[in-house]
Amino acid sequence: MNVFDWDGTIYHGDSSKDFVFYCFKKYPKTRKNIPKCLFFGALYGLRIVKKLTFKQKLFSLVKDIDDIDKAVSEFWNIHRDKIHHWYLEMKEPDDVVISASPEFLLKPICEELGVGTMMASKTDKHTGIFDGKNCHGEEKVRRFRELFPNEEVDEFYSDLYCDTPMAKLAKRAFIVKGEDIKPWKESKLK
């Protein structure tokens, strides 16, 4: 089984950020959230609030979208081309995608791609409130082991070394920069 991070790995860029900007552009009612997003973004940048608080404030814009499923579908119609070709060429039915992005955002595209299992931050698509922790760092390992207690990870792919806890579970780990894939630095696994 191969496990992949989503943003910056399979997807070129950050799908959460792209979705928020897409909503601001496409759904004018969401723009009233811009000052709140900037304010909490600054607080997060200054380490005054946690990432989870910032992300919940950011995704609260979903309250101003009448049909969130339609919005997500239209978003992927426009942004599907940001999925790296290397992944499309190597994908397998038992792949696992594990991401900090909201589950409601990634579920439709992962189903379309035929991803075997998708784990992401559980987020209410009508309120933006997270149900549990942001699926990041050690939380990715906890969520993975909850679903696959005894499975071995053949290969793990991510764009960031903060995913080292997941990389340590894999027989082989790779760091991804666009279309460039290199072995994970051994020094980061110790």
Key traits:
190 residues; alpha/beta; Rossmann fold; six-stranded mixed sheet; 8 helices; 40% helix
Sheet/helix structural class: alpha/beta
Mean pLDDT: 95
Beta-strand content: 15-25%
Based on CA atoms alone, the radius of gyration comes out at 17 Å
Q: What's the CATH H-level homologous superfamily?
A: HAD superfamily/HAD-like
Short précis:
The protein is of the alpha/beta class. The protein is built from 8 helices and 6 strands, in the order βαααααβαβαβαββ. The relative contact order is 0.18.
Topology:
Blueprint: E1 2-4, H1 15-26, H2 34-45, H3 51-59, H4 68-79, H5 85-90, E2 96-102, H6 103-113, E3 117-121, H7 138-147, E4 153-158, H8 164-167, E5 170-177, E6 180-183
Parallel strand pairs: 1-2, 1-4, 2-3, 4-5
Antiparallel strand pairs: 5-6
Helix pairs in contact: 2-3, 4-6
